[in-house]
Design a protein that fits this description.
Elements lengths: L3 H17 L3 E5 L18 H4 L7 H6 L1 H19 L5 H11 L5 E4 L5 H5 L6 E3 L2 E8 L5 E3 H9 L14 E5 L8 H13 L2 E5 L11 H7 L3 E5 L12 E3 L3 H17 L1
Parallel strand pairs: 1-2, 1-7, 2-3, 7-8, 8-9
Antiparallel strand pairs: 4-5, 4-6
Helix pairs in contact: 1-10, 5-10, 8-9
The structure holds nicotinamide-adenine-dinucleotide.
Length: 263
């Protein structure tokens, strides 16, 4: 981790970038929400310490009832933690960027809805991996409120099915092996390529195609900032890397931005 002085300088530099940029894209991953009490996937104690990712491929969900039961078990556990979660300083700082008219959009891998809860408008948030807050029938596409489906699970249903057609219900999140949402993916490519500042917050940058967005931004001429506790495979492309806690870092960057805007 960088020394305090290096960290201070990096925060100052990023604040300067923000003040001078016009098309800022913030890209968030699970690390943006750990300070809200939602475990990420890859850190020690994260979801993949408890479950085997191999079990959650979309094709397995489609193929057999046992996999679907496992999926709903894991997904229920994750949903319970994200339902009671509140936005943390990362989300609040990004919401403030929008209020300051400094945000083109957020591209998020998160499925927790915390950017919207923090006050970002819905049209500014591109949910690349969908949302855990709703559920759809994979056959007729009827939408269900997540809480209503969770109620059935609480009452003992192991694999919920559609009331209309009997099709499989699945949360509106993108599993490994499942097609990416077309509109969101295209929009994310376009916005990242067109950005002049691209800020990654709390992502290991290993899940594709999401992890390609910072490279795409860089190829379009943007400055790239990576704020993440651990190193990422794309660090070599970054103009500034801050390996520190996302909440405190983002809050301090915003403090500097406020000061600079006042001056
Ligand atoms: P990841 O688990 O691969 O990586 C998270 C990264 O965040 C790690 O590199 C870690 O060092 C860093 N991190 C954790 N806490 C941090 C903190 N407080 N400050 C700074 N850095 C911190 O997550 P990912 O890159 O988002 O990719 C995994 C997938 O996980 C995504 O598809 C996402 O949809 C899904 N996911 C989402 C949630 C959520 O919605 N909150 C939770 C778990 C997983």
């Amino acid at each position: 981790m960088a020394g305090r002085r290096d960290m201070e300088e990096s925060i100052e530099t990023v604040a300067g970038f923000i003040v001078r940029s016009r098309r800022i894209v913030v890209f968030t991953g699970a690390g943006a929400s750990t300070e809200s009490g939602i475990a990420d996937f890859r850190s020690p104690g994260g979801i993949w310490d408890k479950y085997d990712p191999e079990d959650f491929y979309f094709q397995k969900f489609l193929a057999n009832e046992q996999s679907r039961e496992k999926y709903w078990h894991m997904s229920t556990e994750l949903y319970e933690s994200l339902k009671k979660a509140k936005p943390n300083p990362v989300h609040l700082a990004i919401a403030e960027l929008e209020k300051l008219d400094k945000l083109d959009c957020i591209i998020t891998q998160n499925i927790d809805g915390l950017h919207q809860k923090a006050g970002n408008s819905r049209e500014k948030v591109i949910e690349l991996h969908g949302t855990a807050l709703s559920v759809s029938c994979l056959s007729c596409m009827r939408k269900y409120d997540r809480d209503e489906v969770q109620d059935r699970i609480r009452k003992g249903v192991k694999v919920p099915r559609c009331d209309d057609c009997g099709g499989l219900l699945k949360p509106d999140t993108i599993s490994f092996g499942q097609a990416m949402p077309e509109r969101e993916t295209n929009e994310a490519y376009k916005r990242s390529l067109n950005s002049d500042l691209f800020i990654v917050v709390g992502s290991s940058l290993v899940v594709q195609p999401a992890a390609y967005m910072p490279i795409n931004a860089k190829q379009g001429g943007a400055k790239l900032v990576i704020i993440n506790r651990d190193p990422t495979p794309h660090d070599e492309y970054a103009d500034v890397i801050i390996n520190g806690p996302a909440g405190e870092t983002m809050a301090r960057i915003l403090e500097k931005v406020r000061d600079k805007i006042k001056d």
